[in-house]
């Protein structure tokens, strides 16, 4: 298959799909990432043959060799996106070309094959079209179908080298609000013993290994009564980078917003980029620069820093109430900016306002 031809996915419908009642029950009460739709996408890759056999097939276990390299050396990447049902019943996703580009960048960093953009986009469309009854209606609230494209190295080989076989897949899970508390502020633990990413490492790639490496810090945060962990730069332990899976914004009393600049160790969030644009359109000055942990503490204590919020596809925007560290904490007073930006973004995603940016991409 070449990048020029429009890929066609074979449809292998499962004989035993969930009943309409089961789907309705799940959509009325979706947990995050716990239940999956009837089908999944699978595309195989080999060094000799390239991408082959694109199909939408029954959701179910993979058969993999125990020696498949993903199990040993973590050669894996993923993406996270959502499908939204608009009021007229049509189904859309948000800026998928950005995810396709990032997936290709992640693939290069992890020495996996690049998936052609057309194949990425068509895989989402084919799966959502077949499983469209799993995309919840927005009358149910902040609901969507979460899409999880991912790629793993499947070659049976314990030699340490890029695998000659890989598998691309997409699974989908009905999603309600990521944090059931909605806009309830979360507490953030400052990680001082662990870093997420170092220069030259994999911080800008969306790979499972980054998440595995963040879990011990996350557990420490939970032990300290926090929901999420903020990581600092690996060299000076001074510059605020991001949370384990969300980018950070700092909003000042005068309306200025600061977000850590893309330093080579921060994951470039699609939500981050979109919020920078939306905030500027609303008249905020948005500055991308290095932002120190001392600034965060001092400006929150003085009251100049009124809001801190984290953002990502799954949780959209979450306000940070308190930053805690060993021996101290500081709280933000809170304000309207996070909520305003959140509503502006959700209105576009759910088709409640005109999409003046051309960000929405119709799937069904
Ligand atoms: C996925 C991710 C984000 C958020 O990216 P979005 O494209 O906005 O969903 C932020 N940080 C990390 C480390 C991530 O993996």
Summary tags:
Aminotrans_IV; 9-stranded mixed sheet; pyridoxal phosphate; 2 domains; D-amino Acid Aminotransferase, Chain A, domain 1; 26% helix; binds pyridoxal-5'-phosphate
What is the fold's blueprint, element by element?
Layout: E1 10-11, H1 20-28, E2 39-46, E3 50-58, H2 69-73, E4 76-78, E5 81-85, E6 91-94, H3 96-109, H4 117-130, E7 144-153, E8 165-175, E9 186-190, H5 208-223, E10 228-232, E11 240-243, E12 247-252, E13 257-260, H6 270-281, E14 286-289, H7 293-302, E15 305-312, E16 316-325, E17 328-331, H8 337-349, E18 360-362
Parallel strand pairs: 1-3, 9-10, 9-16, 13-14
Antiparallel strand pairs: 2-3, 2-8, 4-7, 5-6, 5-7, 6-18, 7-8, 10-11, 12-13, 12-15, 15-16, 16-17
Structural account:
By secondary structure, the protein is an alpha+beta fold. The chain folds into 2 domains: 10-176, D-amino Acid Aminotransferase, Chain A, domain 1 (2-Layer Sandwich); 186-349, D-amino Acid Aminotransferase, subunit A, domain 2 (D-amino Acid Aminotransferase, Chain A, domain 2, Alpha-Beta Barrel). The protein has 8 helices and 18 strands. The strands form 2 sheets. Strands 1, 2, 3, 4, 5, 6, 7, 8 and 18 form a 9-stranded mixed beta sheet that branches. Strands 9, 10, 11, 12, 13, 14, 15, 16 and 17 form a 9-stranded mixed beta sheet that branches. Strand 9 (186-190), helix 5 and strand 10 (228-232) form a beta-alpha-beta unit. The longest helix has 16 residues, at 208-223. The protein starts with 9 loop residues before the first strand and ends with a strand. The model has no long low-confidence stretch (mean pLDDT 95). The structure holds pyridoxal-5'-phosphate.
């Amino acid at each position: 298959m070449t990048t020029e031809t429009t890929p066609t996915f074979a449809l292998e419908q499962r004989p035993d799909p969930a009943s309409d009642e089961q789907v309705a029950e799940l959509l009325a009460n979706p947990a995050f990432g716990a239940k999956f739709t009837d089908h999944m996408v699978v595309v195989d890759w080999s060094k000799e043959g390239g991408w082959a056999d694109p199909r939408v097939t029954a959701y179910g276990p993979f058969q993999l060799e125990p020696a498949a390299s993903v199990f040993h050396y973590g050669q894996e990447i993923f993406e996270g996106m959502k499908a939204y049902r608009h009021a007229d019943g049509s189904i859309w996703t948000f800026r998928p070309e950005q995810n396709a580009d990032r997936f290709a960048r992640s693939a290069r960093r992890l020495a996996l094959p690049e998936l052609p953009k057309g194949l990425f986009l068509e895989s989402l469309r084919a799966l959502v079209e077949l499983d469209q009854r799993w995309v919840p209606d927005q009358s149910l609230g902040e609901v969507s179908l979460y899409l999880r494209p991912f790629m793993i190295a499947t070659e049976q080989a314990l030699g340490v080298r890029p695998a000659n076989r890989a598998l691309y897949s997409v699974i989908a899970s009905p999603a309600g609000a990521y944090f059931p508390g909605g806009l309830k502020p979360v507490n953030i633990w400052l990680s001082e013993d662990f870093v997420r990413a170092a220069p030259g490492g994999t911080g800008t790639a969306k790979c499972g290994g980054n998440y595995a490496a963040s879990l011990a810090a996350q557990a420490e945060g939970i032990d300290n009564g926090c929901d999420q962990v903020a990581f600092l730069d690996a060299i000076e332990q001074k510059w605020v980078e991001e949370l384990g899976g969300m980018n950070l914004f700092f909003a000042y009393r005068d309306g200025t917003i600061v977000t850590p600049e893309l330093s080579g160790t921060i994951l470039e969030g699609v939500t981050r980029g979109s919020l920078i644009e939306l905030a500027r359109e609303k008249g905020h000055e948005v500055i991308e620069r290095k932002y120190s942990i001392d600034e965060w503490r001092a400006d929150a204590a003085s009251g100049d820093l009124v809001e801190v919020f984290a953002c990502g596809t799954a949780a959209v925007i979450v306000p940070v109430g308190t930053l805690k560290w060993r021996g101290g904490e500081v709280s933000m007073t809170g304000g309207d900016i996070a909520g305003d930006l959140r509503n502006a973004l959700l209105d576009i995603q759910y088709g409640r306002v005109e999409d003046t940016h051309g960000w929405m991409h119709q799937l069904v």
